[in-house]
Each structure stands twice: as C-alpha cells, then as structure tokens.
TrEMBL record:
All copies of domain Response regulatory, residue ranges: 3-113
Xref: SMART domains: REC
InterPro entries listed in its UniProt record: Bact_response_regulator (IPR050595), CheY-like_superfamily (IPR011006), Sig_transdc_resp-reg_receiver (IPR001789)
Any matching Pfam family: Response_reg
Protein name: Response regulator
Residues the record lists as 4-aspartylphosphate modifications: 52
Gene3D superfamilies named in the record: 3.40.50.2300
Positions of the UniProt region annotated as Disordered: 114-148
PANTHER family: RESPONSE REGULATORY DOMAIN-CONTAINING PROTEIN (PTHR44591:SF3), STRESS RESPONSE REGULATOR PROTEIN 1 (PTHR44591)
Keywords: Phosphoprotein
Length: 148
C-alpha cells in the first residue's frame, strides 16, 4: 500500500480523486493548497504527490519547487494536474489534464509508482465507485473549460 498526498482546492475533485485512490488500495493524505501539502509531506513523507496547478496560498508549481529543494522530499515523484496546459514544474514526473478519463488517472498513478519503485495497487472498476462519484466523474462539462 502506497501513501499518496492529494492536493487540490476543489473539494469535489479532491473527494473524487481520493475515492479512486482509496479503491486502488492506497492510503490518501489530503491537502487544500501547496502550503498545507508541504506541511503534510514533511510530517508523513508520501510515496507520491498528486497536485493541482493553480491553488491559493501556494500553487502546485511552488510546491514542486519546495519539494525539489528539500533533501528529504526531492525524490518523491509528483503528478501535476490542471485544466490548463502543462506548467512544467521541477520534479514533475507526469502531467494529467483534469479532463482525463478516470482510467487514465489510474494508469498515470500506477505507472508513476512503478517507475519510482513504490508498490502500486490494482485499479478499481467504475462499479466500485459511489453513485455520486460515477455521476461526477468527468462530466462533459468538466472543469477543463475553466481557467488554470
């Protein structure tokens, strides 16, 4: 079981991503911005960080810069996700659009964990999700039409 720090200021996406990761049998730590994520990362040293790009107090890019400069955390792989284009931040192993299908999210998490040497888990099937998560999961009017 891997520990994944999930960082997003949108509660609905935080809940959805957390449910996906928990169904994949990962431990999920949640943060609402980069500042909170950095504190959690220091306290719990996750196996992977999945972060939004644009957040209050400290953006995902700023979080990546802090992680990269930290001796203890620089090797933690990061997946950046955004409704905007790929921001190219230090330490980012993969970029994922917020419009990505759940299967792509699962695959990117799995591949990143395998590449980092952590122990990945198997992906859930869509039927494992709660009804609200299935209905929320990347509707055609997803956040991709919003800004970063």
């Amino acid at each position: 079981m891997s520990t994944i720090l999930l960082v997003d200021d949108e509660p609905e996406l935080l809940d959805l991503y957390a449910e996906v990761l928990e169904l994949m049998d990962h431990r999920v730590l949640r943060a609402h911005d980069g500042h909170e994520a950095l504190e959690i990362a220091h306290a719990r040293r996750p196996d992977l960080v999945v972060t939004d790009w644009q957040m209050p107090r400290m953006t995902g890019v700023e979080l990546c810069q802090h992680l990269e400069r930290d001796e203890e955390l620089r090797d933690v792989p990061v997946i950046m996700h955004s409704a905007a284009t790929d921001p190219h931040a230090p330490g980012v192993k993969a970029f994922l659009s917020k419009c990505a299908e759940l299967a792509e999210f699962e695959e990117v998490v799995h591949r990143t964990l395998v590449d980092s040497g952590a122990s990945p888990q198997g992906p859930p099937s869509l039927s494992d999700f709660s009804r609200s998560a299935r209905e929320t999961a990347w509707d055609s009017d997803c956040s991709c039409t919003l800004g970063p």
